[in-house]
Amino acid sequence: MFEHIQVAPADPILGLNDAYRNDPHPHKINLGVGVFKDENGATPILKSVKQAEERLVENEKTKSYLSIEGTEAYRQAVQTLLFGADHEVIAKQRAHTAQSPGGTGALRIAAEFIKKHLPEATIWVSNPTWANHQSIFQSVGLEVGSYAYYDSTAKSLDFEAMLASLSQVPSGDVVLFHGCCHNPTGIDPTNEQWAQLAKLCSKQGFLPLFDFAYQGFGSGLEEDATGLRVFLNQVQEMLIANSFSKNFGLYNERVGALTVVCESAEQADAAFSQVKRCIRANYSNPPSHGSAIVTEILTDQHLRSLWEMELKAMRTRIHEMRSLFVNTLRAKGVTQDFSFISKQQGMFSFSGLTPDQVAQLRTEFGIYIVGSGRISVAGMTKDNMEPLCDAIAKVLAD
Ligand code: LMR
Fold this sequence. Notes:
The protein has 398 residues and is an alpha/beta fold.
């Protein structure tokens, strides 16, 4: 029965993680997967998370099922974080949120919902985009197109080309935007550019789907929601897939959410009933622990401010590593300009390293970078910076 099945290629990001784990190199460095590391190279559990967990263990009374969409408290907390407490969308009950297994789970449910209810829609993703986007949408049979985003010569957003591409997207199609900290480039639209994109979206009549996995990793919780909120002022309908893997460090708890925004409360009820059907047919209902942690932190003043401090510390450390990386390369005599890296946001940068250079870094130095040249700045530390920059200087000179 199974003799015809071929071995699938390794996942470009998580497959790299497995290869890193098995690499005996004594000084290996993992800049592949987007996971935050502290200055010791560890991915610690946040103090706010630990404290919330202690309370949960103490107070938990049942392990019975959650509802298909997760708890009311979690769903409200997510909406407040996305929209801000007093947003009209919340007051008019135009949005419904379902807990999901991470941001990926939210995207998968969104994909199924789109395929079922907008079967003719093509979904447009930025070029480049997160390596898993294509797979998620193609796996439900959606057509995936790409819109211009990155200028590889200027190492910046090619906004004119982006506008030109999106002006061709017809009404009824779906466009995926990275809410902040674009993965893999680290380059986001400015506030003015978000406003232009929202106007264009309203004019063209396409549906925006925000992938919002890094809220708080760019400039701050509120600042990072600017693009999404600018869109909300222009358009009546939207899908948002958000994740708490990074900003709460809850990677292996798989906690995120899918939010559907509609024109009216009635439409939101109808659309959400269909989202719940997709969930029921996939994993029935979500796990409790991760979302309970997030709810506990977001709804308690002490835990919330502790978490915001910890989030700020993570964001600041990454910004520091960006500058240190650029300065260390310069100090090692690298003449190629890497200063763009210190201007970017979030965990990632598109380094401009070629596939050959990426391969050489791995085989000669045990340094793991995604094949596209994407580096996770969050994996850099003061300790690994010197050997990392020595190796990059060497491969650039070869
Ligand atoms: C990444 O892009 O490295 C992260 O979002 C982890 C993943 O699932 O790919």
